[in-house]
Structures are given as structure tokens and as C-alpha cells.
Fold this sequence. Notes:
Layout: H1 4-7, E1 14-17, E2 23-26, E3 30-32, E4 41-43, H2 76-88, H3 92-108, H4 113-129, H5 131-136
Amino acid sequence: MLTKTEAFPLPFIGEYHGAGLAQFKLYKPFKYIDEDPTQSVTVPIYDPVLDFKTDGASIPPVVYSIIGSPWRGKYVEAAIIHDWECDQAKTLKERHAADKKFLKMLKILKIPYWKQRVMYRGVRAGAWLNKKKILANGLTK
């Protein structure tokens, strides 16, 4: 398995925008390098046309004391890549693949096993709860 430095060779650089759950715009590309090159990802710099912003880990405030807050945990790199992959997903299958990759990245980042499982179940529950919204946005099964 790759190390964090091998998997995430670049720091995420950008700035926060918005209120509440702060949105973050990247000003430098951010990369995830996978052992399988077809699974590697580069999140581009902020582009007004794409308008991609990440909110870090979408963690409900009620569980901050257990999991951590959106920008304070060791999982932030995985959350940024996951947000990008979900934003780019065109099918529910691609969304599920993004969730599985998120779990793999949590392992690379050495997040405790129990927390990996809770966070993975959280993104899967989010996908299930937002299925109608996802399909309404043009994604297919």
C-alpha cells in the first residue's frame, strides 16, 4: 500500500469561501496517485466554469466530537478527492466507485479502522438519501 506522501504528493492550496460549512476553492492542482494508474485523480485549479468547491468532509456537527470536523482530521485529502469524484460522476455506479475509493484513501491515510467504516457508511448513506436528487441532476443508474 502507498504511503500518504506517495498517494498525495501535493498539498491542497486555495482559500475558503462562504458561510456555514465553508467552501474551499483550489488554486493549485491536487493529486491522488493510486497503485493502479487508471484510478489516479487530479483535481484542477478553481475554474468559474466548473465552479468546483469542496466542503471537506461532510460531517454532521452532532458527531464532530467523535469523527472530527470537516477540515480538522487526517482525512481531508480523501474528502477533497471524494468530493471531486462525486462532482464528476455521471452514474450511480461511478458514485459508488468514488465511495469505494474514499475508503481506500482512508486506509492509506491510516485512519482508525472503526472511523473508516463509519465514514464510508456515512458517504454511502448520503448517496442513498440523495439518490432522487442525484438522478434528477442527470445521473443514471
